[in-house]
Specification:
Length: about 600
Amino acid sequence: MINVIILSLIYMILITLIYFSKDKIENLDNKIYKRIIVINIIGLIIDIIQFLSIKNELDEQLIYLFAKFFLLYVNAWTFAFSYYVISKNTKHSTALGRLLFTILVVTAIIGFILPVKYFYNGTEMYTYGKAIDFAYIVGNIYLGICLFSIVLDYAINKNKNLKQYIPLFIFVIGGILEIVVQKTNPSLIIVSSVETFITILMYFFIENPDMKMIEQLNIARDQADKANQAKSDFLSSMSHEIRTPLNAIVGFSEALQEEELPEKAREEVKDIVMASNSLLEIVNGILDISKIESGKIEIVNSEYNFRDIYDNLVALTKGRLGEKPLEIRTSYDESIPKVLYGDHTRVKQIILNILTNAVKYTKEGYIDFRVTSLVKDDICRLIISVEDSGIGIKQENINKLFSRFERLDIDKNITIEGTGLGLAITKKLIELMQGTIVVQSVYGKGSKFTIAIDQRIIHKEIVEDAKVEVVDSSKNVDVSGKKVLIVDDNKINLKVASRLLESYNLNIETLDSGASCLDKINSGNIYDLILMDDMMPGMSGVETLHKLKENTSFNIPIVALTANAISGMKEKYLSEGFNDYLAKPIDKEELKKIIIKYLNK
Ligand code: ADP
């Protein structure tokens, strides 16, 4: 038996060296575990001394003393082990620890006073007597308390995973079995070896610092994820709330611009429009970035014609030039397959961001917008480059370019409107599509942004719905007398929408709920177009639409009108059954397109 004890000691020393040499996250568990290890080593040493002292037939009193020290060790180990188990299963571990410690002191004193005897016949040896019996009883009480704490904890926290109790449970049962076996076969001398075995198993199953570290890291990651989620939710609901009053500001100030106003007022209205538009840009940016970061943005793929996007982008860029003396050079690779499969809304958003920046950060010279492609099997790699002769970016700033809210060269850009969110969003969207973006720039001379995005090729002729719809809003509109119904629970929103539609000489009616809209339609009223808010109390826009469509003869076009303007929303509303989508604050140009599409027929 002595060989087993010596081996246990060697093994325990090795484990101790490994345990103490590793970095650990300090907590109550491993504080107690450290004590268990130390107590265990001392116990093994006492056990060996006790064995040798009996074998060498030392003085009886000395043997009794060693035996009592050994009992003290057993007591201390069981105490520390129980404290460990209980501290894992209860919030009141400090109070319970004190109670157990008191038991330890009292039982240690009693154990010391009670008599102990030993038996040795040259081959067999063991200790016995009242002190030993008492130690068995105390040990069982400790382990009983442990079992009770495990069962109680499971009963209270049903949601905890049952699996995590298994190692502790097995250890406690192992401890009880050890006492029973030792009591019935005293000459086996297994106590210190079994306790070592349990201590070592605890290391491998629970206390291994690497495992603990991973466990702690997982907890930290979960907490960080939750905090990030809470932040994103807050940002998106805040942005949403801001959009409603902003709708009124943008709508009315844009309407005012068309009025006959004194020169000073005209200037001020122009400033209000500009300021509210840049506020809107910030809100949209925050909304987009928070959605991307919380993983709520999805890439919605469909068939589309890249040429349409390209033409549209060129037109938009020219429209943004204003008075700037900038030459727009364009080049389109005609070999780009006619029908591609991908998220055209995002592709357009990405390129538009880069083109808008080129216009913003270039005073004079040129903007060169080029698209080429590399085709391999079914994949078309779109290579889009935008080069400008603008202010350029310092080499040391290129890495900061894609960080949120990072605006470079502030003193030079002070007059340029911007949020520092555009490129952060652009980069994240490109990554979502497994694409790349590269920036080259010479400070003071100009910059070149090159994007590569892979899109699948669809081998067929252009079909009507693969075409991205481009409505020519420069067309003259004559829709006077057409009947339009606007449904929105917010009175100001109704006023804004009516005001923006005023110049079309329409016959406008407004309603403030989904239910009243249903009543109107069901009582036979006919309209040429319905603009419907989604987020209304009682019955939402989507619900109202579904109810209206239950009547199979209902065929009035309905356009969703909502402050829920995250990219990707349009697809969601179209899939619900809306004919189209208008984000609030309502953009005059977008509104005009809708009017042309549905009323100017
Ligand atoms: P912003 O809203 O400020 O334009 P972006 O994220 O789009 O935000 O761009 C971040 C910063 O990168 C800008 O503030 C600007 O300093 C710099 N930048 C972006 N594009 C260009 C460019 N074409 N030329 C020079 N600087 C640019």
